[in-house]
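### Sample
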Amino acid sequence: MGDVLAGFHAVWEFESDSVLIRYERGIRTPRLFQALGERRIPLSAVEGVTLAPGRRGTVALRLVLREGADPLTEAADGQLKEGADPYRLVVPAEREGVAGYYADELRKLLTESGPSERHLVAAPEAPLQFKASDAKASFDGTRVRFRWSWTGASSAKWKAGDQSFPVTELTGVEWRSPEDFEGHLRLVPRDGGADRPAQPDQDPASVVFGLGYGPVHESLPFAAAVLAAVRARGPVPAIPAAPARRDPADIAERIRHLGELHQAGLVTDEEFSSKKAELLAEL
């Protein structure tokens, strides 16, 4: 088609086999859109196109993606608010005729429907990171790392130590929006995690969100990137990462906090001695 349709916060470029969505930058543009930058949606990933009235004299053109075709949509699992839907273009009502034309033209090009066996839309690119309420989470494309916060992590997570998960040892990701009550990001291990705690704040394979921690525009692209890596990789043996040398000041701070937990009765004498030896071994 080779045409362009501009709306609020985004511009759609219609190509013969895809729709390229370029998101605007600005204080009124949803932060998720700004974080994504742009998204190329192959028409093979699109199941339908809708055009519906919007708010305050607008209409909304929306791509309906096939189940399993997009890691971002799969990770979001229907939790995004309407205004944060990256595949919804809002235009003034006086441009409804133009939007309707593009909707009709797109429908003529659609040939696929039903669930997709693989992701057809590219995931946000690693490396990615964000700060949760109880940890700093990072993903380099092959491994997820959680580094616990002294002030936010539960004693169960602290006792378990900082975590590192190769994507080859995962089968999925569970994301619960920080805009809902008790949001979190939870990794699903290949062994099924039969013994994992029910509550994410006690599960070392999870990080929890709070006010200002784990915002949608940071944690959702992170979850989508991990999910895409999990889907793309088969059971390839993971190469253990070389243990990182710790900053002595960081080790001293951790031992100090360990002593506080010990004095408070949250850590036994045996646990205190064992964990202290582990920390000293990292120097």
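Residues 226 and 246 are 26 Å apart (CA to CA). This sample (DUF4429 domain-containing protein) is used throughout the tutorial notebook.
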